[in-house]
Amino acid sequence: MLKLYGGARSRASIVQWYLEELGVPYEYVLLDMQAGEHRQPDYLAVNPFGKVPGIIDGDLKLWESGAILLYLSDKHEKVIATPERRAEITQWVMFANATFGPGIFVESSREKEMPRLFTALNQYLEQREYLVGDRFTAADVAVGAFLAYIPLMLGIQYGDYGAIAHYHQSLTARPAFGKTIGAR
Ligand SMILES: N[C@@H](CCC(=O)N[C@@H](CS)C(=O)NCC(=O)O)C(=O)O
């Protein structure tokens, strides 16, 4: 069975959310990060950088939440992926982790980045229910997780951005979200 390594209130809950969406069985290995278990040899053998999440799936050891989401998407999404569709999902996962998250969570860039990121995302979502195609994908997990963390961790609400607020509400109402990030 797939093993997911994470700590309490860590980014492992992003991967856990997607595993629940996909209905893939997994064992959650909760590391005591306060005690430094993520820096012990057992876990460094999974991720030499000592960061969570990490997974073991068969012979594969994989880390970086975005890489794990894309792997699970390739392996378990039932709709046949064209290169174009897969590229769009990759684009949004990378946008979430490399542009959106840092733009909002790095305090020195927030004032400049937040209005332009929120405005463009809001406009995009005015036309759509999901980020890629007409169904929920790993792209929604990657961006949706940050949209869930922003009010929780920064106290920022989406009042002026109606389409983001609607999208955020619809994602947080999903049962798999409630069992994972929503249960924090
Ligand atoms: N870009 C990485 C970030 C991983 C990361 O920084 N994880 C934090 C927990 S949320 C961690 O393991 N921190 C422990 C440490 O840096 O020692 C990802 O998305 O997987």
How does the SSE layout of this entry go?
Layout: E1 2-7, H1 12-22, E2 26-31, H2 41-44, E3 54-57, E4 60-63, H3 65-76, H4 83-105, H5 107-126, H6 138-154, H7 162-172, H8 175-179
Parallel strand pairs: 1-2
Antiparallel strand pairs: 1-3, 3-4
Helix pairs in contact: 1-3, 1-6, 3-4, 4-5, 4-6, 5-7, 6-7
Bound molecules: glutathione.
* CATH top-level class of the largest domain: Mainly Alpha
Shape annotation: globular
C-alpha Rg (nearest Å): 16 Å
Query: What portion of residues is helical?
Result: 55-70%
Q: Label the structural class.
A: alpha+beta
Order of helices and strands: EHEHEEHHHHHH
In this entry the ligands are:
glutathione
Distance between the termini: 24 Å
Explain what the structure shows.
The chain has 184 residues and is α+β, with helices and mostly antiparallel strands. It has two domains: 2-76, Glutaredoxin; 83-174, Glutathione S-transferase Yfyf (Class Pi), Chain A, domain 2, CATH 1.20.1050.10. It is built from eight helices and four strands; from the N terminus they run E-H-E-H-E-E-H-H-H-H-H-H. It has helices at 12-22, 41-44, 65-76, 83-105, 107-126, 138-154, 162-172, 175-179, and strands at 2-7, 26-31, 54-57, 60-63. A four-stranded mixed sheet has the order 2-1-3-4, covered by helices on one side. The longest helix is centred in the middle third of the chain and has 23 residues, at 83-105. The protein is globular, with a radius of gyration of 16 Å. The two termini are 24 Å apart. The mean pLDDT is 96.
